[in-house]
Amino acid sequence: MPVRLLLLALGTFAMGTDAMVVAGILGPVSADLGVSVGAAGQLVTVFALGYALLAPPLAAATARWPRRRLLLTALAVFSTANALSALAPTYELLLATRVLAAAGAALYTPTANAVATTLVAPEWRGRALATVLGGMTVATALGVPLGTWVGRADWRLTMWLVTGLGLAALAGLAALLRDLPAPAAAPTLRARLAPLGRRGVLGAAATTLAFFLAFQSVYIYLATAVHGATGGDAGRLGLVLLTTGVMSVAGSWLGGRLVDRAGVRAVLLTGSAVAACAFAALPWLGRSMPGALGYAAVVPLAGWAVSVALPHRLASLDPANAPLLISLNSSALYLGTAAGGVAGSAAIAVLGGRWFPLAAAVLALVAWATAAATTRDGRAGAPAGAGSRAMSHPKPEVETLVREGSSGRARTGA
Q1: Which of 156, 190, 213, 208 minimizes the C-alpha distance to 324?
Q2: Is residue 410 scored above 50 in pLDDT?
Q3: pTM of the predicted model, to two decimals?
Q4: How far apart are CA 139 and CA 245, in angstroms?
């Protein structure tokens, strides 16, 4: 395996860890800065919202930059932002540093994916992407539990850990990443957003938004939801998060195969229904470790299967414009994550720390209804009244793009 690919993957590992590790240290952050757990959860919200809103204009603004310079700049911004997070004396400054970190991640992740395909022969491009995107998967399985464990006494140590990971990737790529091809012409911001004018694309993006709104409204506050089982112990919470990460990897593997066998619609509807049931049961499951671990096994399995189906559906709608459509899926994913942070905080305020997952169950049913109303064809996930048999089987090159687009799920914990 080329070392440069592993260094690119180290960068995505840092990004993935940073995106969701705050979910595991909400308690220490809340206690140290004197804010509520709900307010601390907004750190995840602003990161996700910043990524979603900044990614399209940043991509357009830096389209002509040399790829090496762009990667190193992104890592420098990201690492600096996390160092500032570790030093932030107030909640307001910490929020600002999260936005800056999101800007670095929004610059780095799509660029790293594109560069990976230029470092290997064409027949190895899929595996190169899998290696780089694997950094996101490993971040969910290992980075978040590790960051939670490191920050059990002082959450700032978690931020320093992420800073160190970013700097390691920066140093390695600065030394070894040379002679990259010039960037190809990139679409304008208007061209990136134009597909939203199509009904089918809008329906698919709405499904992504609704599903991640439901999922993240619980995941961001999972420590609160399973507090009855963990008693606030960081080791027990780390075990729950580790189980979530491992089952996320399994769900990704399973989702790809289920989409091929059963079709996009079946995976979307089944996964959303399973998630809704699990959210509804969490107020009881979260009272004991066996119940919490059972939840941590089931929901990521369903969630990551859905996460594979979502970009697959968009790519199937218009294979010729798959890259643009998948980028819209990523933006919808992050908007859903941002809204999930707000929705979860509001649900805790209204329903309490034990019962707030019931709101996520309702949101998951909304996601189910959205998918049911906007899909018809079992394999393509085409919008009702607009599908065709030709759309049921995306071109081979689209499958690689789908794997790239579905990576957004790693940094969301879905």
Answers
A1: 190
A2: no
A3: 0.71
A4: 8
